[in-house]
Amino acid sequence: MLMRRSPGRRLRTALPLLAALVVLGPLGWMWASSFVPSQYAATEMGYVDDGGVPVPGGHDHGGSSGGVPVASLTGDVDGPADVAVTLVARQERFRLATGEEVDGYTLNGTSPGPTLHVGQGKLLEVRLVNESVAGGTTLHWHGVAVPNADDGVAGVTQDAVPVGGSHVYRFRPGHAGTYWYHAHQLSHEQVERGLLGALVVDPPGTAVDEATDVVALTHLYAGRRTVAGRTGDVPVPADPGRPVRIRVINTDNGPIRSWVDGAPFRVLAVDGTDVHEPTPVSGTAVDVTAGGRVDLEVVPPATGAVRLTVGGASALVVGPSGAPAPPPSRQPEAVVDLLHYGTPAPLGFDPATAARSFDYAIGRRPGFVDGRPGLWWTVNGHLFPDMPMFTVAQGDVVRMHITNTSGEVHPMHLHGHRMVVLARNEVAASGSPWWVDSLGVGDGESYDVAFVADNPGIWSDHCHNLIHARDGLIVHLMYAGVTPSYRIGGANSPE
Amino acid sequence: MRTVYRVLAWIIAVEVLLQAAAITYAVFGLGKWIQEGGVLDKSVMESEVTAFPEEVGFMVHGLNGQMIVPVVALLLLVVSFFAKVPRGVALAGTVFGLVVLQVVLGMFAHNLPFLGVLHGVFALGLFAMAVVAARRAALPVGPAGVPASVGQATAI
């Protein structure tokens, strides 16, 4: 009977099989080709993008022959340290300053860790000791243009420090301003659970007066918003009429909106760079993107205190002790637009002379990453790990066109450099030079930025919504002639 | 194969109920948390550490909707090619199409909230389609693979 099967019957058997193959075949192929090698150097990821101009000697994608290894890029760090600190990282249950218990990570027993102060150009030495962080850890100096070997990215600029191990960072911060430090090993988990702290670089020759200079690092601990490690209203004693500088640091994965009741305020600095001729504003909020910093100036009035609301749930009450503070208020509709805030000033370089121009187009599509199905972030249409490797030569002026059509905001963070915003949605910047290392790119927005490639190495350029970075929204900026010293995978899991 | 088809279709129907239950549970929990002083922002939304217990509803809805339901719908489609359920391929194809539409709306319509209305309405359509498919597969088959009582089937 089997032998005398009619062609029609054979077709009826074959057709379902064929249909199943048509449906499942492409999926299987996509799945099979999505796997990420178990260990790889950052330079082996994706494909070279030279921004339209060949890079001298830049064909060496693997970057193994000759060249300068990342580990040797330590900068000018001879001599004794001006500031030496040891930070001991622990995985433990701990209490916030206001008493709530948190299961997370501490540095020297607290989270946030100690606020570090160092003078501009002075040599800072931080010895990181991992006492009990099981996954290993590192410290990244967010916003500081450190030499590449001190950047703290596991698998790219160092190996993760295992339990019982230690690592020494030595660098001279070049720009006074507000920065922060955090783990860059399993960062989506370690940062969220508290392995972080503030770093303030003081202007040369002046010691910061802590009575008029306040660090307002905000962090979300298991759904509880904190400022300076405390939930609720945080009192800041201050004299009437005396300006107070408040350094708001957003250590979370989403943007934070801040506003002031009781007095006008000025935006003194963004991401560690002073704003040129900032004007007072009132009834207006300011956005701090994830990973970003904004320094605000408030002057307590003679009659009471000023309320600085940070992200809706927390506030600083700045003024004489016991002075009446304005009640919590609804967030203002208006937001300071840094594209037009302040007045222009020289950049120190000419973006029109850019040697290279890169596109960084963020999108989203269904597919497989490392065998896992999902809706993944894309860069220039590619899924992780098939990402562009933005390749530059030292001294290049570089432009980047960042677009976002992915449906969500992305706080884009370039390591080791600061970028200046030239335009948003094709509208040219008209205010103070808007220097950033963390730039919130909203859905449907585009930004044109420029920077000088003056810090050789291999630098992460990723979304600082660290969940997104873990899910593959990460590329690298690569200098021609620099070769990798470390490998991602195994014990090194930077995101 | 018909039994597999029927079971998969019922799983999808139950999954739709689970999706509705999970999202309602989460939204109610969110409301309670805010009443108690909680503040929702992007960082809370992105956080992988739960702020309130009912937040698990959002995770269930997301994981279920993006992974489990599409996989079951895909399996249903593949099985439909072999199951010889009357109009089974068309029904499974419709179910799969609706699932794709729901995933797309769920992921991309957040900036166009009025499309969320469709997400809710299509869920009912998907539930109905899955039930119809399951019941079609339950009908006894005649000698030539034709259901014994087509009239009954259309009456469902």
Question: What structural keywords apply?
Answer:
heterodimer, A: 495 residues, Immunoglobulin-like, 3 domains, 7% helix, 41% strand, B: 156 residues, mainly alpha
CATH class category name of the largest domain in chain A = Mainly Beta
Structural class of chain B: mainly alpha
What class, by secondary structure content of chain A? mainly beta
Q: What would you report as the Rg of chain B, rounded to the nearest angstrom? A: 19 Å
How large is the count of helical segments of chain B?
6
What is the strand tally of chain B? 0
What report would you give on this structure?
The complex is a heterodimer of chains A (495) and B (156). Chain A has 495 residues and is mainly β. Chain A has three domains: 40-52 and 346-489, Immunoglobulin-like (Sandwich), CATH 2.60.40.420; 83-202, Immunoglobulin-like (Sandwich); 213-335, Sandwich (Immunoglobulin-like). Chain A is 7% helix and 41% strand. Chain A has three helices and 38 strands. In chain A, the strands form eight sheets. In chain A, strands 24, 25, 26, 28, 30, 31, 32 and 34 form an eight-stranded mixed beta sheet that branches. In chain A, strand 30 (419-424) and strand 31 (427-428) form a beta hairpin. The longest helix of chain A is centred in the N-terminal third of the chain and has 26 residues, at 7-32. Chain A is globular, with a radius of gyration of 25 Å. The termini of chain A are far apart. With 156 residues, chain B is an all-alpha fold. Chain B has one domain. Chain B has helices spanning 2-35, 42-46, 56-83, 88-108, 114-138, 150-155. Chain B is elongated. Chains A and B meet through helix 1 and strand 25 of A and helix 2, helix 3 and helix 4 of B.
Outline the secondary-structure elements.
The complex is a heterodimer of chains A (495) and B (156).
Chain A: H1 7-32, E1 39-40, E2 47-49, E3 68-69, E4 83-95, E5 101-107, E6 116-119, E7 124-130, E8 140-142, E9 166-171, E10 177-182, H2 187-190, E11 196-202, E12 213-221, E13 224-227, E14 233-237, E15 244-250, E16 256-261, E17 265-270, E18 273-274, E19 284-288, E20 293-298, E21 306-310, E22 314-319, E23 334-335, E24 356-369, E25 372-379, E26 382-383, E27 388-392, E28 397-404, E29 410-414, E30 419-424, E31 427-428, E32 435-436, E33 438-441, E34 446-452, E35 458-463, H3 466-470, E36 474-479, E37 482-483, E38 488-489
Parallel strand pairs in A: 2-27, 3-37, 4-7, 6-11, 12-15, 14-22, 19-23, 24-28, 27-36
Antiparallel strand pairs in A: 1-38, 4-5, 7-9, 8-10, 10-11, 12-13, 15-20, 16-19, 16-21, 17-18, 17-20, 21-22, 24-25, 25-26, 28-34, 29-33, 29-35, 30-31, 30-32, 30-34, 35-36
Chain B: H1 2-35, H2 42-46, H3 56-83, H4 88-108, H5 114-138, H6 150-155
Helix pairs in contact in B: 1-3, 1-5, 3-4, 4-5
